[in-house]
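Re: your question from the hallway

Yes, I did run it. Sequences:
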Amino acid sequence: MERVAIIGASMTQFGQRDAWLRELLVEAGEAALADANVTGADLDHLYVSNMASGEFEGQTGVVNALAHDLAATPAYTARVDQTSASGGAGVYAAWQSVASGASECTLLVGGEKMTHRSTAEATDVIASLTHPVEYKHGVTLPSFAGLTARHYLETYDAPRESLGKVAVKNHANGVDNPHAQFRKTVDLETVLESPIVADPLRLYDFCPITDGSAALVCCPASVAEEYVDDDEYVVISGIGGATDTHVVHERADLTTMGGVRDSAEIAYEMADIGPDDVDVAELHDMFTILEFLQSEDLGFFEKGAGWRAVENGVTDRDGDLPINTSGGLKSKGHPLGASGVAQVYEVVNQVRGTAGPRQVDADVGLACNVGGFGNCVTTTIVEGAQ
Amino acid sequence: MSDNAHTFEAAVYADGSVTYPPHPVGPNGVERTDTLDLREYEARVVTWTTSTATPPGVRQPNTLAIVEFDLGVSYDGPPVRALGQVVVDDGGTDEGTPNDEAADGEDASEDHPGTDTQVVAIGDRVEPVYVSELRDPEAGIREPASQSWDGFRFRPVE
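Structure:
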């Protein structure tokens, strides 16, 4: 199996954009190709991670449009939809294309255009991923978060304030991310007094609705230095994908995301490392409670202890294990299909030392992208080339 | 509507495990062999939330609970739970009575304007209340004919 290098990475400004999806994909795709010193003509495979362009925009076939716009024809193309984990699943597809030997140069672009829809409409598009017995009760992803947060706080005797501190931390990180949707700090009082969205969770416990795109260029590590210098690329040392029950209430433990645990086990084994070896992580903090669940199910902290790590500053940028240095989905924004790609963009920059004011000391970075409410997960581990 | 007109159907599989909703194959990959009516079992609230940002066609606010059914000491399969809306007691014009069909189109939002009123608590015992239409099928993104829209809300019992 070929060792896979990431030789180019980019992301657009996240937020409320005038551009539509095709334009966002082109913007990120062109930037990643330029970062890798390749052109569309060099591509063997092209993937687009996108959850719902048909539902949001009435635009399907976006990957073929992008192939034409980037002059990438006759590259093989495929759109990857795995709900909120479409980006991570796209990373897996891109990795697989190169690792298998099917492609010598692959571009992955993730993107979503959402902000032209009302919150209620966007919420319903996302909630349409639920099982019919859930959907008919009007369940939304935020309401799953509220249900889980209450159960977590009760089970582990965690204070409500600990969830608020996730939002405070990630907003503070987002200030230094020029691509983030929100570049402003919030204090705990503001978080705890913001409007209730899904009791006990409030507005600042949730990520925003976002437009944006991100992209990666992959090739065999053996030829990476034909495109970029040895300090300009990283390798995907481990990657794993896994699922959990579609129906959330059927899980044995409502505070455990089996897909996170199982995908991480695969990724750790492939990389021949353990959770203690990870220096920086991007987690899918679509809701503050998810940062606790993932940090525990990835093995960073014992079950029920994730909240204590936040309380003790362990996950701060200057802590022992910085989590969501990008600002996370919470501050950076969450354009569904782009998010998993943008997570890897952040750890690529952390590992190759190009994260600017967000830079931490990192040789090993991990990104965990969650779809649905833990229904499907991809965990990716990135290490320096040497 | 008679008590037996609407069952809260769960599936029983060859290894004795039970799931709600029913699946073609059981959690351990074994075949489905029978059904049971969850109305016959005691249920308690595991967790709950009140959602204020609801999609089109859904009551606002929308209190939801995950409840767990007690299938007895002889049952050793995975937990049997259901997620459902919680009946909001509005002082007489409730959305339904146990196992009885409610009037169509009811909306609790005007009678439950905020989330300060806690209508359920962890550990509460609840009973299922049949409702013919849990949300407006025409208002959301999902094709109305693709699924059923009736079901059971949960009402706390003393």
